[in-house]
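worker-03 picked up job from queue 'complexes'. Input manifest follows; four sequence lines, order preserved.
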Amino acid sequence: MAATHELSVSKEKSSPKKIHKDLEKELIKDVLGLVETYPRVPITVDCVIFGFDENSLKVLLIRSDLEIYKGKWSLLGDFAKDSEDLDEAAARVLKERTGMDDVYLEQVRTFSTPGRHPGGRVLTVAYCSLLNIAHHQLKILDNEIHWHDFKSLKEKDLAFDHKLILDNCIQWLQKRMMEHPLGINLLPTKFSLRKLQSLYESILDRQMDRRNFRKKFFAMNFLIDTGEMETDVPHRPGKLYKFDFKKYEQNKRRWTGIDF
Amino acid sequence: MAATHELSVSKEKSSPKKIHKDLEKELIKDVLGLVETYPRVPITVDCVIFGFDENSLKVLLIRSDLEIYKGKWSLLGDFAKDSEDLDEAAARVLKERTGMDDVYLEQVRTFSTPGRHPGGRVLTVAYCSLLNIAHHQLKILDNEIHWHDFKSLKEKDLAFDHKLILDNCIQWLQKRMMEHPLGINLLPTKFSLRKLQSLYESILDRQMDRRNFRKKFFAMNFLIDTGEMETDVPHRPGKLYKFDFKKYEQNKRRWTGIDF
DNA sequence: TCAAAAGTGTTCATTATACACCCATGA
DNA sequence: TCATGGGTGTATAATGAACACTTTTGA
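worker-03 finished. Artifact:
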């Protein structure tokens, strides 16, 4: 990409194209030589995969395959391959573990504390992804990978610095949830307002007034009434809605104002 | 750090401590061996150093030292040393270039597109830092490093993907500025409300009503009247204020509410 | 008929926005 | 005396928060 940029040395107008190409090759060789001398670090991506089911927030974890962390749970991670964009690497991990692509996925933060990996310096880039448990069937056939109730993790000891990473990601998720309709990705395509509110309450970890919550969402005008109702509920069924992502993209609010 | 964790194998209560230590050493050797096999990537940090002077937002850039980018400007960056936390690396770059520590500095994002560096795969972690030009004297003795008007950079071609990084950082800064009083770091310790507003207008790139702006800031109660006035202004001098960071830390607002 | 959640409006407080005049200073 | 920005208040609109009763359904 950068190597194909117009070079500033191309000012020497009279030189034929070949010389430019040769010069460029020369320069790239120089840069390659320079980069050779840089210290190198192993890179991993760790995916914090959030799900939502039975009215609580879940995180997908795997048993650590390192003997030193035997019995502990860890985030889903892998090394970045050579010449792989880290976004791709994260998507690959997600695909390998859950069989899914086209899932919400976003870079959150890079962790580089020297002692964070017992095998020496390893840098990790944390990605957050959200998927709805009920909607997709995961390829969870062995018992080495499991959905964990987020709340239950407070006491548990995770491998590496994964507790720290998880902590960063939940805070990121909370903030992001308040400004973007990410939460919808954790629900089935059609959902009741109760489920939606329950999702928000789980993630933001506080109760909300039901009437105000409904008012708020209806006022946004991004909910489409499917005409369908809940089934199999032991009480009066609620309406099912879809989220109008298109309309949201067109009308989403611009951030202005100073507030701190 | 991680290596000092209590190991789960310590369940074998009867074993003397020494055996544990030996076992731990064994395990760490295994992990070290494993990490040996990982692909390794050169890591750099790039600092996007924002300043504010003469009522406009500035960015500190250096002439690229790569022949291939001859004549182009680039962000201030360097390789991460072995066993150096990237936050430290960024602080080091800042110190080396500006002579300053205790400056606002925050990780923004990691860039990993395979073609982003002409010398092969190089990963960079972008840091944003804010410092007030007027207050500190920079060690800018040569003409290879300069403050650039942020607006003027729109047309200029930067080295590497530094345009992209800069773009990410300004967006990050805008958002962050609306929620935290970062901007104060770009001003001298004592500042007039006009300067403050001018700063916000430059960064957020929009005009604000002067009366409402003042009302807003006074309502926060984080401004301390120093009793001093501006000098050397060709008009009625304004009062000079300091920002009460302590009070801010204690009283800063909690984020609640859904808004998108 | 009961339990559980659906659905629905109003009031009050806070915050955002729009807007115009006199004042103090240096040139 | 003029140009420049300092300093100030009010009215209106929009938004957020608190709060209770009737309805529908399945068990």
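worker-03 released lock.
Residues 192-194, 210-211, 214-215, 233-239, 257 of chain A lie near DNA strand C (CB under 10 Å from a C1').
The helical segments of chain A are 17-36, 86-98, 162-179, 193-204, 210-220, 245-251.
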